[in-house]
């Protein structure tokens, strides 16, 4: 299947260190022109573009030529300031964006203008909205008693307006909010934290099932101030500043009406009171809107994998832990295709992030590992992800992952699942169509379950459970006519948009490693760097080894492909390839299986010949590789702590017999075979005209070349 991604003239494609810009595209592929040589064009086919996009030789920069991106480069240098920033500064930028979004909310409601004097009266409401955007309400709901919840300080009005201008000048991109300082702002007097805490008690007094009126709640709040000041005066402490009735009344008026009605009337009555009618979603393009949700499956399974059960005796099987797993699911609203499925032990942001990464990659190999016959190639960069207020989707890690790849994240109001009807309907479909066929079903309620002994009948393992779900989705659901598509199947709808070049382009390999790659710190050596026992090198690493006083570099690796990594050298991110060809396309699980086989015949820290690695790699048959892919969709995937533990347990030195120890460093490293360079097929449209005064332009005159270099061991 040939994928045709949507590229615009504002996007810049850097291929083999040459900057290109889209000129046109036709049925044969894309036609690019070089920026410094507009008369030189290059044609790249759709299949070849897809292959290069996932490799280290292509960098795709979206909206590179837009005015906002130009201003962003003036302030932060090259794009990607959020990705290069430290973790604490990334959280700070996320908080600034929450404050800016709160400002825009009141600005559209004409409650505030772009002046300092307009921000001060609504500062409390801005703070409430900012903390709500940052997820404080739901952090408090999910936290235990005594657990500390840290929320950054709300900015002064002038600082907030500075953030708004920086955000707009950066083309409404979060990179414009990444900075290393806070600007001074508001000089106006306001209440301190203790006084605001007393004022906020009016909300609890009014939001009661006893339904007191606002005047009574305001009077009781002022009585609390007077009682507290009387105690402070008796003890000799400074008294609190007492607000006026109007101030307390304004504070109460700024509280969400829906929140007050939920407290006073109940959630069902509040939903009925505040419900609004809509004509439904108007989604035309694939990945324009992707909905995600987590659901606790109505089936009890064994917390183990099939391979583990084969090693356990019969008496141990009865004592094996059982329970209900969570399922993370991403669904495209335009084509109704399921883009990602992942089984999780609990609600957590890590599995949600891994599910987001699956949205960006081809999952056909995973589907084949589960025995599916239909392809599962649906992928691309979503424009917007819609999620509920679960702990996984409101976590800072998940929000940062969406921001790093430039995906919008929206949280509809609580208690209205109809606003996420697409993903909710797929869980209902699984409950009606698939769950009745599974052993150990718990049903939707105890009345429907009756006396069914689900705990005693549970026999499905984690990999068997996810295999059943994936097989149903890929082979049955995607091939079944869907009423929301007018009788068209989700698979046919995706293929129709693919033929029309409507599929958004997924991130390139560099962006994927920056957003989802595992970060490591390594020391430069004569081979470049060593990660997982594999040597990686590039020209920039060699120059840094010779001239840079800093020996530590930051490395980001994709465990699905150990053939190359991204390395930060001299303030820029460059690809470093593995010195051996065999690691191209090899994933971390396969490399660990190879090391396990070598460990059986060699001691730890052994020197291993590259041919031994090749033979061990060839011994990994297809069934083992399929089992690795299946386990990656279960809670038994490789975690960060597993990677660190494996690196401490065994280190290998890879040796080659054909390497000359006295040869220069450049000769010791055999670069892998590079993909075919499509730029070599460039065609000059208008050659340089012949000038009699310039003999260098005469036909057949060879151009002078400088040849220089050095060797260093």
Apparent shape: globular
Estimate the strand proportion.
Answer: 15-25%
Total DSSP E strands: 23
In spatial order, strands of the major sheet run 6-2-3-4-5-23
The major β-sheet equals: 6 strands, antiparallel
Tally of helical segments: 32
Description:
The chain has 713 residues and is an alpha+beta fold. Helices cover 41% and strands 15% of the residues. It is globular. The model is unreliable at 181-185, 659-674 and 703-713 (pLDDT under 50).
Summarize the structure.
The protein is of the alpha+beta class. The chain starts with a strand and ends in a 29-residue tail after the last strand.
Highlighted features:
single chain, 23 strands, disordered C terminus, 32 helices, six-stranded antiparallel β-sheet, globular, about 725 residues, alpha+beta
List the helices and strands and how they pair.
Layout: E1 5-6, E2 12-15, E3 18-26, E4 29-34, E5 40-44, H1 46-53, E6 58-61, H2 67-76, H3 81-84, H4 87-108, H5 116-119, H6 123-134, H7 136-142, H8 157-169, H9 193-199, H10 201-206, H11 214-235, H12 245-253, H13 257-265, H14 267-274, E7 290-296, E8 301-302, H15 306-309, H16 314-318, E9 322-323, E10 326-332, E11 338-344, H17 349-359, H18 364-369, E12 384-386, H19 391-394, H20 396-404, E13 408-410, H21 421-434, H22 446-449, H23 454-457, H24 462-476, H25 490-499, E14 503-504, H26 509-516, E15 518-523, E16 529-531, E17 534-537, H27 539-547, E18 552-558, E19 561-569, E20 572-578, H28 588-599, E21 607-609, H29 610-619, H30 622-631, H31 640-649, E22 653-655, H32 665-668, E23 683-684
Parallel strand pairs: 1-14, 7-12, 12-13, 21-22
Antiparallel strand pairs: 2-3, 2-6, 3-4, 4-5, 5-23, 7-10, 8-9, 10-11, 15-18, 16-17, 17-20, 18-19, 19-20
């Amino acid at each position: 299947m040939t994928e045709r991604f949507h590229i615009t003239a504002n996007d810049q494609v850097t291929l083999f260190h040459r900057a290109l810009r889209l000129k046109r595209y036709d049925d044969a592929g894309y036609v690019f022109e070089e920026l410094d040589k507009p008369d030189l064009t290059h044609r790249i086919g759709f299949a070849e573009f897809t292959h290069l996009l996932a490799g280290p030789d292509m960098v795709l920069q979206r909206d590179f030529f837009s005015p906002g991106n130009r201003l962003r480069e003036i302030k932060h240098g090259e794009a990607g300031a959020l990705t290069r920033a430290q973790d604490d500064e990334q959280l700070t930028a996320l908080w600034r964006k929450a404050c800016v979004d709160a400002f825009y909310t009141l600005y559209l409601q004409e409650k505030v203008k772009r002046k300092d004097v307009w921000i001060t009266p609504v500062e409390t409401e801005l703070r409430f909205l900012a903390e709500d955007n940052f997820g404080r309400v739901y952090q408090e709901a999910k936290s235990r008693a005594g657990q500390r919840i840290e929320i950054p300080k709300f900015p002064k009005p002038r600082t907030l307006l500075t953030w708004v201008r920086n955000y707009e000048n950066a083309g409404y991109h979060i990179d414009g909010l990444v900075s290393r300082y806070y600007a001074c702002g508001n000089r106006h007097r306001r209440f301190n934290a203790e006084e605001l805490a007393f004022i906020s008690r009016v909300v609890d007094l009014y939001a009661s099932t006893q339904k007191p009126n606002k005047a009574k709640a305001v009077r009781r709040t002022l009585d609390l101030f007077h009682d507290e000041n009387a105690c402070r005066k008796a003890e000799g402490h400074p008294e609190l500043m007492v607000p006026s009735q109007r101030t307390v009344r304004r504070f109460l008026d700024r509280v969400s009406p829906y929140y007050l009605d939920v407290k006073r009337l109940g959630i069902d009555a509040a939903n009925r009171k505040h419900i609004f009618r809509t004509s439904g979603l108007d989604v035309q393009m694939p990945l324009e809107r992707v909905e995600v949700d987590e659901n606790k499956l109505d089936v009890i399974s064994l917390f183990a994998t099939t391979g583990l059960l084969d090693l356990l005796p019969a008496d141990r099987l009865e004592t094996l832990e059982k329970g209900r797993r969570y399922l993370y699911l991403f669904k495209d609203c335009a084509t109704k295709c399921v883009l990602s499925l992942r089984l999780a032990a609990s609600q957590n942001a890590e599995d949600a992030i891994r599910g987001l990464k699956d949205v960006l990659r081809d999952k056909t190999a995973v589907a084949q590992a589960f025995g599916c016959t239909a392809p599962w190639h649906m992928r691309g960069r979503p424009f917007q992800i819609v999620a509920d207020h679960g702990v996984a989707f409101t976590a800072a890690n998940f929000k940062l992952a969406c921001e790093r790849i430039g995906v919008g994240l929206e949280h509809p109001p609580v208690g209205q699942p109809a606003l996420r009807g697409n993903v909710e309907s797929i869980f209902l479909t699984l409950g009606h169509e698939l769950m009745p066929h599974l052993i150990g079903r718990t049903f939707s309620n105890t009345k429907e379950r009756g006396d069914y002994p689900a705990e005693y009948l549970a026999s499905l393992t984690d990999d068997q459970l996810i295999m059943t779900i994936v097989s149903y989705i890929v082979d049955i659901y995607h091939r079944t006519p869907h009423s929301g598509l007018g009788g068209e199947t989700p698979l046919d709808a995706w293929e129709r948009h693919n033929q029309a070049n409507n599929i958004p382009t997924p991130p390139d390999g560099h962006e994927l490693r920056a957003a989802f790659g595992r970060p490591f710190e390594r020391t430069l050596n004569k081979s470049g760097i060593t990660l997982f026992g594999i040597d990686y090198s590039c020209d920039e690493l060699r120059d840094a080894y010779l001239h840079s006083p800093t020996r530590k570099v930051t490395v980001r690796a994709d465990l699905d492909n150990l053939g190359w990594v991204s390395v930060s050298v001299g303030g820029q991110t460059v690809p470093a390839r593995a010195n051996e060809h065999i690691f191209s396309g090899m994933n971390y699980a396969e490399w660990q299986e190879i090391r396990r086989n070598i460990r059986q015949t060699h001691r730890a820290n052994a020197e291993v010949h590259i041919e031994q690695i090749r033979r061990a790699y060839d011994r990994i048959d297809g069934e083992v590789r399929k089992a690795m892919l299946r386990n990656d969709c279960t809670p038994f995937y490789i975690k960060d702590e597993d990677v660190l533990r494996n690196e401490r347990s065994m280190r290998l030195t890879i040796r080659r017999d054909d390497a000359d120890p006295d040869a220069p460093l450049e000769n010791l490293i055999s670069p892998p075979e590079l993909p075919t360079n499509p730029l070599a097929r460039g065609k000059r449209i208008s050659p340089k005209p012949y000038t009699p005064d310039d003999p260098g332009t005469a036909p057949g005159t060879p151009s002078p070349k400088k040849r220089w270099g050095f060797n260093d061991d």
